[in-house]
């Protein structure tokens, strides 16, 4: 790789690819390979309940985040490969693969008798177009003796933009079975907000771009987040702030009545065994000696 770089003065991230489309086809090929042979891992980023009246932040669950060491390409982040998987329809297989990995973890934790957290999985819009998505997922949980309340699902506004009946039907079936649904990256989509009343959603995750603006000079960030919190409360939705990185953001969110937070300030994504250990110890946050950012991220 170093030799190649030396030869190619115009090298970018992957010097072996002459253009974007050859990089894309390499990613697609590598995805197919890893879907068959393995190569994906999950990290779990804890979610903390911060409602006032409590002594401190309490770990209540996590979000599963996909990690991929792509054959021939190296460690590749989801922001790179998810859009490519979406453009080819491979994302449905990927969603199914991730869900299986997570249900495997949950099944182990449920069978060993200890307390079990609720873990969220990110599911793409395309999976929700499949009329049998909810049915298959509930079947998978039943086969593994995992209660539906152990799983929650994050979807983006894009999933609801299509206003398709299959997406709504899947959401209703999942909710009826006890699976909570969260709207991810709230505020970044372009959809009408009517779905918030129309569908049985439980949670609204405020996109980290808004959280990053808390504590700015002009107070613009605070204005938007306050408005989102008020709307969510009026609609009976729980609120989660994502990407909380500072003490100032954390304290402000708590004083404004945000229900839950996620972000490097309290914990980076963790190895699953590390997450379950901390969860069961009932500790407020990971060891302060542990690195605060994800290694290699
Ligand atoms: P997301 O669902 O909004 O996930 C949160 C992202 O923010 C994660 O990035 C996480 O590592 C990162 N993050 C967490 N705390 C902080 C923080 O304090 N500061 C900053 N700057 N970032 C933080 P990641 O893991 O790279 O994932 C990116 C996106 O890729 C996710 O955004 C999600 O939309 C998607 N994704 C990840 N895993 C999956 C998956 O299994 N399936 C699908 N369909 N999408 C996935
Ligand atoms: Mg998410
Ligand atoms: Mg998010
Ligand atoms: Mg986000």
TrEMBL record:
Residues 24-283 form the EAL domain. Coiled coil: none annotated. This is EAL domain-containing protein. The chain holds residues 738 to 1034 of 1034 of the full protein.
